[in-house]
Amino acid sequence: MTIETVSSREVYRNRWMTVREDAIRRQDGSSGIYGVVEKPDFALVIPYESGTFYLVEQYRYPVKGRYLEFPQGTWEEKADAAPETVAAGELQEETGLVAGRMTYLGHLFNAPGYSTQGMHVFLAEELSQGAQSLSPEESDLVVSRVTVEDFEALVLQGRIKDASTLSAYSLLRMKKRLP
């Protein structure tokens, strides 16, 4: 099925995203509108060592709650940075960890029904501890280390609700990267 864009207008912009509204024509000839959130791709890192993951927990303002997730982010001020550079940087900034080996697992879309944003997923191994470098938005960030079994239990308990974290974990499992 193809949807044709008839016209497009920007309705909002800040340094993190742009929202546009497109007038569209569907394959059957009917008209409509489509709201699209344009955001740059981000990097998500799965820090794994000896049967455990490192997770970060921070307050997420839009959902008014604290949840566990894999380290992830984008660099608005360096939009042209390579995904592996962003991944290594986010891992170090959020957890203080440096990966001796970083493996690219793939690219997934975050919410393709309304957003252009995707994520590059990396597995970080051979970890060494360094210092965190948190931004003001991350000042309440806490790092936890959990076993794979505990990770799955935390999902079932509702402590891990981040769709990016869950889809990255699924990709890791499907690529058979866990023992």
In brief:
The chain has 179 residues and is of the alpha+beta class. It is 19% helix and 45% strand. Residues 38-168 form the Nudix hydrolase domain.
Overview of this protein structure:
- This protein is of the alpha+beta class.
- It folds into two domains: 4-38, no CATH class; 42-174, Nucleoside Triphosphate Pyrophosphohydrolase (Alpha-Beta Complex), CATH 3.90.79.
- 19% of the residues lie in helices and 45% in strands.
- It contains three helices and ten strands.
- It has helices spanning 83-95, 148-156, 163-174; strands spanning 4-13, 18-25, 31-38, 42-49, 52-60, 65-69, 72-73, 97-109, 118-129, 142-147.
- Strands 4, 5, 6, 7, 8, 9 and 10 form a seven-stranded mixed β-sheet that branches. A three-stranded antiparallel β-sheet has the order 1-2-3, with no helix packed on it.
- A hairpin with a 4-residue loop joins strand 5 (52-60) and strand 6.
- The longest helix is centred in the middle third of the chain and has 13 residues, at 83-95.
- It starts with a strand and ends in a 5-residue tail after the last helix.
- The model has no long low-confidence stretch (mean pLDDT 94).
- Its cofactor is Mg(2+).
- Keywords: Hydrolase.
Task: Give the helices and strands, then pairings.
Blueprint: E1 4-13, E2 18-25, E3 31-38, E4 42-49, E5 52-60, E6 65-69, E7 72-73, H1 83-95, E8 97-109, E9 118-129, E10 142-147, H2 148-156, H3 163-174
Parallel strand pairs: 4-9
Antiparallel strand pairs: 1-2, 2-3, 4-5, 4-7, 5-6, 5-10, 8-9
Domain Nudix hydrolase: 38-168
Catalytic activity: GDP-alpha-D-mannose + H2O = alpha-D-mannose 1-phosphate + GMP + 2 H(+)
Cofactor: Mg(2+)
